[in-house]
Design goal:
single chain, 375 residues, alpha+beta, Cyclophilin, 6 helices, 24% strand, globular
């Protein structure tokens, strides 16, 4: 049995029947009637982008300027300016590292560091070129500011209680519940989520979904209590993590990286995630790859290191210079429709709805705020 959004309990057979009925009512592509005539498009189902574009204003959530970083890179070879905007992770995840990152930014410690590692289909990493860099021998290390916190490995995840009604057999099937939430350990309204059950045979945790606009995963055991479980952020494209050395080191936030390739989910719960790139990702993903170990730039490639001129907390900038962004609430009806459309593409180009999607293939829509909304 499965709990529907209105509280109705649906049997497995009814759910599967519902999927089948959906499949046979999908529009079919019309045949071309002549070589000179274009194909007649099918009756349109809205694309994910169309659903997002139609989302009402009250379903969008403004991102606080205190949670935004503005990273200014040196101009490119043509003299064009490059700016990257990072959104920091909200509570309850990774707050020790987030606090350190703000401290480092406000101490202007990041000013003058560089991008030191670009590994194809993996990560771009920036920090002090003399620190924890296999290619940085002989480079003087920049002293860290005082007051940085040290975190334990247990802080890679947070304790939660899943608030759901799911029977044993449903854990085998990828299904979606619009209003599954996690609670316990923190105020319930701090972590609203629309969760998805991942196929248990994919090798990843049994629960994936969204918490306050962020992709998360969690532990779930069939036919057992939902209490005493954990949840953590997920290494999707564009997520920003904290570089570290071997355990028990957990990193301070002085070395940061972003994912530029296929989601390295094996890093989940092994490295802290502290944010995500929400604007300017092209300035990082297009950088030349390093030929050294792990994609670090070698001594002969020192000229490839991109200097970072500054990193500032947006709330510290003059109001006119502050970036303003908002995300589509992952508790909204529009997001539920968007996520379903990403998992089952029915707009004209697609032939077969897949019936599911990797959590990282449902990026949370984020847009710049304009006009009065940004003020």
């Amino acid at each position: 049995m499965f709990a529907a959004p209105d509280g109705t309990r649906l049997s497995m057979k009814k759910q599967i029947l519902g999927l089948a009925l959906t499949a046979i009512t999908l529009p079919a592509m019309a045949l071309a009637q002549g070589e000179s005539e274009a194909q007649t498009p099918p009756a349109e189902s809205p694309s994910p982008n169309a659903i997002v574009a139609a989302a009402p204003a009250n379903e969008w959530v403004a991102i606080d300027a205190e949670d935004l970083l503005v990273m200014t890179l040196a101009p490119d070879a043509r003299g064009k300016s490059r700016e990257v905007v990072i959104q920091l992770m909200p509570a309850p995840f990774s707050q020790g590292w987030v606090e350190n990152i703000r401290t480092l930014a406000r101490a202007k410690w990041y000013d003058g560091i560089s991008v030191n590692r670009v590994q194809d289909n993996y990560v771009v990493q920036w920090g002090d070129p003399g620190h924890d860099n296999p290619e940085g021998e002989g480079i003087e290390t920049k002293p860290l500011p005082e007051g940085l916190r040290a975190m334990g490995e247990e802080e890679y995840s947070v304790p939660v209680t899943w608030n759901m009604s799911i029977e044993d057999e449903i854990a085998h099937v990828y299904r979606r519940s619009l209003r599954v939430s996690m609670e316990g350990g923190y105020s319930p309204d701090i972590m609203p989520v629309s969760m998805m059950l991942a196929d248990r045979f994919e090798g990843y945790p049994g629960i994936t979904g969204f918490s306050s606009g962020w992709p998360v995963a969690g532990t779930f055991t069939r036919a057992h209590s939902t209490e005493g479980k954990e949840a953590w952020p997920v290494h999707c494209y564009g997520m920003v993590g904290v570089g570290r050395n071997y355990s028990p080191d957990t990193g301070s936030g002085a070395e940061l990286y972003t994912v530029i390739g296929h989601a390295p989910r094996h890093l989940d719960r092994n490295i802290a995630l502290a944010g995500r790139i929400i604007d300017g990702m092209e300035h990082l993903s297009s950088l030349p790859r390093g030929s050294g170990v792990l994609g670090f730039y070698t001594e002969g490639e020192a000229d490839l290191r991109t200097p970072i001129l500054s990193i500032r907390v947006a709330s510290d900038l003059p109001e006119a210079e502050r970036p303003a962004f908002e995300y589509l609430s992952t508790e909204s009806e529009s997001f539920a429709a968007y996520a379903e459309a990403r998992a089952n593409r029915r707009d004209p180009f697609f032939i077969v709805p897949t019936g599911g999607a990797d959590i990282c293939n449902i990026p949370v829509p984020i847009r710049a705020m304009t006009g009065d909304a940004a003020g």
